[in-house]
Design goal:
Structural class: alpha+beta
Strand order of the largest sheet: 1-2-4-3-5-8
Number of strands: 8
Strand content: 25-35%
Largest sheet: 6 strands, antiparallel
Number of helices: 4
Radius of gyration: 13 Å
Mean pLDDT: 95
Low-confidence stretches: none
Shape: globular
């Protein structure tokens, strides 16, 4: 299964999972120093930023992540997204498919108006 893809304004490649199994495949290909995103709430794609992104790339990836989240689809409000490195992701025995733990992360607030602006330019 292919990942969702987005090219940022600087042509940085962003990959996002489409399902729990696809999230497993996405995390498997993440390099230790690459940035990964996931919403604070369960039910979003894991998102991987390729290369050496700048803040604008990270923000676009966070909006992309939030747009496909259950939190956004259910609440239509601001969404908190966690940002972390591939090396901080772990999988314990017994974790459901598509579920991972994270050792440390930072939070990015994606505002409702940012998601709405993103959606205006896309057919989702």
């Amino acid at each position: 299964m292919k990942f969702r893809e987005l090219l940022t304004d600087r042509n940085t490649l962003i990959l996002a999972g489409k399902s729990a199994q696809n999230n497993e495949e996405l995390i498997a290909q993440v390099q230790p120093d690459e940035i990964v995103l996931h919403t604070d709430e369960a039910g979003s794609p894991f998102v991987n930023i390729k290369g050496n992104p700048r803040w604008g790339d990270i923000k676009q990836a966070a909006i992309f992540c939030a747009t496909y989240s259950k939190d956004w689809k259910k609440n239509k409000k601001d969404v908190w997204v966690h940002k972390f490195k591939g090396k901080d992701v772990y999988k314990d025995l017994g974790m459901k498919t598509g579920t991972f733990g994270v050792n440390k992360f930072k939070r990015i607030k994606v505002r409702k108006k940012e998601i709405e602006r993103f959606l205006k330019g896309r057919d989702i």
